[in-house]
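Subject: Sanity check before I submit

Could someone independently write out the structure tokens for this chain? I want to compare against mine line by line before I put it in a report. The sequence has 283 residues.
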Amino acid sequence: MSAFVASPVAPPHQPPTDTGYAALPPLLRRITGDEKHEPSANSTLDVLWVLYDRILRISPQTVDAADRDRFLLSKGHGPAAYYAVLAAKGFIPDAWLDDLAGPDSPLGHHPDRLLVPGVEIGSGSLGHGLGLGVGMLLGLRAQGLTDQASGANRAGGAGGVGRAGRVGGARVYVLVGDAELDEGSNHEAIAYAGSRQLAELTAIVVDNDSATHGWPGGLASRFSVNGWTTTIVDGRDHEALTDALTGHDGVHPHLVVARTPAKYAASEPGEYTTSGSKENGHA
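---
Independent answer below. Compare away.
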């Protein structure tokens, strides 16, 4: 077999004929070989879809644009839902979904930024994404690519204006699992981002009750005590997620807690059931 060689600038791929939310379950079912992370992956499906369908200013044509939004999947275990969304939006060909972790496949059990177009970081070692997001945002500010750096909104930008209607400089979004917050590196990132008022940073925590330790007063209080604005929503409600993800105040970093109690054991839209299984440290 010939080895897979990633193109330095991968061309955009044609998405499946049905590119709406209903296309995701069939795409997700094509990914086999990582069933142990299926509940964890399914719990992120709605958040990922809303981000790529309504919020993020990035497209297959602008994966290398300097002023694109950055999305970091810190919750890198079980990336099946992430791959399904990337395929639905044309970042990768859907045929890749049929060979997860195969000898010639660019899709691994953890995303690889060097192999998968649109992926910003290699993740899966839990607890790193939020700190990387802070550093990435500081780099964008230093290059004058954020509103805080430029002092002015830039309409359009990479990928144009999404359904949420946002304009302006680049933002950084980090998707974190609730169990990841047991890792101490996150708390340093939370404290630093709040003290420096990194207003272009949004963290999304998928809260499915998997954390070993938790936090007194709930996850949102861990961020708000350090100066973050916070919103708690149903992790399956697309309208609520859209409002929450655009609810930053332009001054403080913003947190969205997407509540997905227990875990989704089914992937069909509108037919979610819950499972009693837990994957402490992997959510």
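---
OP: Matches mine. For the report I'm noting this point. The two ends are 35 Å apart (CA to CA).
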